[in-house]
Amino acid sequence: MIEGTSVNEEAARVVREDAARNQRMLLKLYGVVLDGERYRACRKPDCGRVVPAGTEHCCGPCGDAAKHAHEIDEHSSACDERWQERRPLVNQALSDGSW
Q1: Angle, nearest 10°, between helix axes 7-29 and 77-96?
Q2: pLDDT number for residue 11
Q3: Pick from 6, 17, 42, 75: CA 20 to 30 A from residue 61's CA?
Q4: How many CB atoms lie within 10 A of CB 41?
Q5: Angle (nearest 5°) at CA 51 between 55 and 93
Q6: Cβ atoms of 43 and 30 closer than 8 Å
Q7: DSSP 8-class letter at 46
Q8: pLDDT digits (tens, 9 = 90+) for 22-73
């Protein structure tokens, strides 16, 4: 437990982390269909964004970070914009089970 947090706060943090980890696993294993097109998780294991099937990484900085085995500092602005559009659709598809 993190010092200075209540048991409820700690439990909520663990649930959020588990949900994010489970979402990444579903996207990695099955992908998701958005507007009739299959998307899957970015190949950078800690990224969590989706890319069209056949695409390796969500953006150049993410691909560079994967290539050099380090955490990404910042996604490209275009990637951030795409993710803002896709994120609600991905969340909805995962909650509907349309993956």
Answers
A1: 90
A2: 72
A3: 17
A4: 23
A5: 145
A6: no
A7: T
A8: 776 777 777 888 888 899 999 998 888 999 999 999 999 999 999 998 888 8
Residues 6+ apart with CB under 8 A from 23: 48, 94
Within the chain, residue ranges assigned H as helices are 7-29, 60-67, 77-96
At position 65, the amino acid (one-letter code) is A
Q: Per residue in 73-85, pLDDT tens? A: 899 999 999 999 9
Predicted TM-score (pTM) of the model is 0.69
C-beta pairs of 26-34 under 8 Å, 24+ apart in sequence: 26/94, 26/99, 27/90, 27/94, 27/99, 30/99, 31/99, 32/90, 32/93, 32/94, 32/98, 32/99, 33/93, 33/98, 33/99, 34/86, 34/89, 34/90, 34/93
